[in-house]
Design goal:
The chain is an alpha/beta fold and 356 residues long. The protein has 2 domains: 202 residues, 2-enoyl-CoA Hydratase, Chain A, domain 1, CATH 3.90.226; 70 residues, no CATH class. Helices cover 30% and strands 15% of the residues. The chain contains 10 helices and 12 strands. The strands form 3 sheets. The chain has a 7-stranded mixed β-sheet with strand order 1-2-3-4-5-7-9, with helices on both faces. Helix 3 packs parallel to helix 4.
Length: 356
């Protein structure tokens, strides 16, 4: 009779293979996506500097219930830290493909731990929200984590920048946190934020409404005031966040970034008014870097006309290769510190006097 001898090297190799298998399961797409949407990890990759993301809580799962229910790694939220233009940030992205992006116990604990990390290190926190609210199957444990999350939002207010990006329907408890962060970005036609949906309102009050009228991106920007920026598409929303961060200090102990004048790349940025001639400027065409590469996003509060196009690969290459001090320049007559204009927001007539 022979006995197979297992060496420590063999055991180590098996453990590494098991780790890689679990890691592959953790990063696999959570489920089908809506048309034109990125996955949670893709959103983070497009937001942060290339290769800078470090994930936290990758193998966290919800506690077993004994009924054989699915327990995916990550529990429906991707959390971690990385950099934007070389500056550290904390970020979480809710995955609507896993339990509809609903918050369970493990989901909430990961998000709260990330908020604690951001407060401890003094860096901005960015939430990419796409959630159906509380995971009712987990009972009060899920609801309690919303209280912990909102508590962190309050503690962080005025200490570190908090930015929420609503990239899908956020209902119920999922609408609370984005509404009280410092800045909220929503995507036109894709983002919705409300406590109760149209069906519930019709059942209780008899009033018929739509998700867009109740808490759509335009309603939240122009009526309720729950949002501050309106983006044409997801790519525009993520670019808006990157632009916004360039204005902000990392925390309340730092000064905001400063940009040296006279170092703008070839080409310039400009604004133009709505073709209907309305005076309030919310429509613009933008060109950065070489004049042949343009980005356009048009919107008018008067006529509601809108056209948009995604940034070209050439423009993105030029943008990623330039430093924060070389992107913007004020008009020749201006003596103010040059800054970039966040694209996708409702603007004012004063924007016509600015260049990017």
């Amino acid at each position: 009779m022979t006995t197979e001898v297992t060496t420590p090297t063999d055991r180590t190799a098996d453990r590494i293979a098991d780790l890689e298998r679990r890691r592959a399961q953790a990063v696999a797409p959570g489920g089908p996506r809506r048309r034109g949407e990125f996955g949670a990890r893709e959103r983070i990759e497009r937001l942060l500097d290339a290769g800078s993301f470090t994930e936290t809580g990758q193998f966290v799962r919800t506690r077993p219930t004994g009924d054989g229910a699915r327990r995916p790694y990550g529990d429906g939220v991707v959390t971690g830290h990385g950099t934007v233009d070389g500056r550290p940030v904390c970020v979480f992205a809710q995955d609507a493909g896993v339990f509809g992006g609903s918050m369970g116990e493990a989901f909430g604990e990961k998000t709260v731990a990330l908020m604690d990390l951001a407060l401890k290190t003094g860096c901005p926190v960015i939430g990419l929200n796409d959630s159906g609210g509380a995971r009712i199957q987990e009972g009060v444990a899920s609801l309690a984590l919303y209280a912990e999350l909102v508590r962190r939002n309050v503690q962080a207010s005025g200490v570190i920048p908090q930015i929420s990006v609503v990239l899908g329907p956020c209902a119920g408890g999922a609408a609370y946190s984005p509404s009280i962060t410092d800045f909220t970005v929503m995507v036109d036609g894709a983002s919705h934020m409300f406590v109760t949906g149209p069906d519930v309102i019709e059942t209780v009050t008899g009033e018929r409404t739509t998700a867009e009228d109740l808490g759509g991106a335009r309603t939240s920007n122009s009526v309720s005031g729950n949002a501050h920026f309106l983006a044409a598409h997801e790519e525009d929303a993520l670019d808006t966040v990157r632009d916004l961060l360039s204005y902000l200090p990392a925390n309340n102990l730092e000064r905001p970034p400063e940009y040296a004048p006279g170092t703008a790349p070839a080409g310039s940025c400009w604004t133009k008014s709505c073709p209907t001639g309305w005076g309030g400027l919310t429509t613009w065409a933008t060109s950065c870097g070489p004049s042949s590469t343009t980005v356009s996003s048009s919107r008018c509060r008067s006529c509601s006309r809108r056209t948009s196009s995604a940034p070209s690969p050439a423009w993105r290459a030029a943008r990623s290769g330039s430093s924060p001090t070389s992107r913007c320049t004020p008009p020749a007559s201006s003596t103010s510190t040059p800054r970039r204009r966040p694209r996708g927001s409702y603007g004012s007539a004063t924007r016509s006097a600015l260049r990017c």
